[in-house]
Design brief:
By secondary structure, the chain is an all-beta fold. It has no helices and 15 strands. It has a five-stranded antiparallel sheet with strand order 1-6-7-8-11, with no helix packed on it. A five-stranded antiparallel sheet has the order 2-3-4-5-12, with no helix packed on it. A three-stranded antiparallel sheet has the order 13-14-15, with no helix packed on it.
Length: about 180
């Protein structure tokens, strides 16, 4: 991981999921050439459009900290954070260090090429419209706060979440699914 600035920052309050707006400098962008997401230093995805950059966002806390959807993963106790893109990629790796351990969250949106496309063929790209968040324990133990709150229609509606077959599905939005590791 490239050298990056590190900073101490307490976590967002556990009882208040609508944390304050983050400065734009706190965000890193990931994308799949079709959609994009903005990941805050504190582990929150505050903006994400899956199919098109200009499409309806599933997470839009960037616009409305109180009602906008988001997907947050961060330690439940005070932490220091260091992050950067993996070399020559658009894959973001964030390392959280607490007094009891360290963990990494790796965020990306996969992209591929159609069969037969050349190495430098950037027109024949395919994307499954996925947002991938991988959590990896590095050492010790770290208690996590995880909040998954998608929104629809620019936060005018919240989908009902249904747990079935190890997946968290947003009712009425078949493509909005979170695979759970348990």
């Amino acid at each position: 991981m490239p050298a990056t600035a590190s900073a101490s920052r307490p976590p967002a309050p556990r009882e208040d999921p609508a944390r304050a707006y983050r400065p734009i400098r706190d965000y890193a962008a990931i994308g799949d050439c079709h959609g994009a997401a903005l990941v805050a230093r504190d582990g929150g995805i505050d903006w994400c459009c899956l199919r098109r950059h200009d499409g309806e966002p599933v997470f839009c806390r960037l616009l409305d900290a109180g009602k906008g959807g988001y997907f947050a993963i961060n330690p439940a106790t005070p932490y220091e954070v260091e992050r950067g893109y993996l070399k020559d990629t658009n894959i973001l790796r964030t390392v959280f260090a607490t007094s009891t351990g360290r963990l990494a969250v790796t965020d990306f949106m996969p992209v591929g090429r159609r069969l037969g496309a050349g190495t430098h063929d950037y027109v024949s790209l395919t994307a499954p419209n996925w947002l991938v968040r991988r959590i990896e324990g590095l050492d010790g133990e770290v208690e996590l706060d995880v909040a998954y709150r998608p929104s629809l229609d620019f936060a005018r509606r919240r989908p009902e979440l249904v747990l079935a077959d190890g997946r968290l599905k947003a009712e009425g939005v078949p493509e909005l699914v979170a695979d759970l590791p348990f």
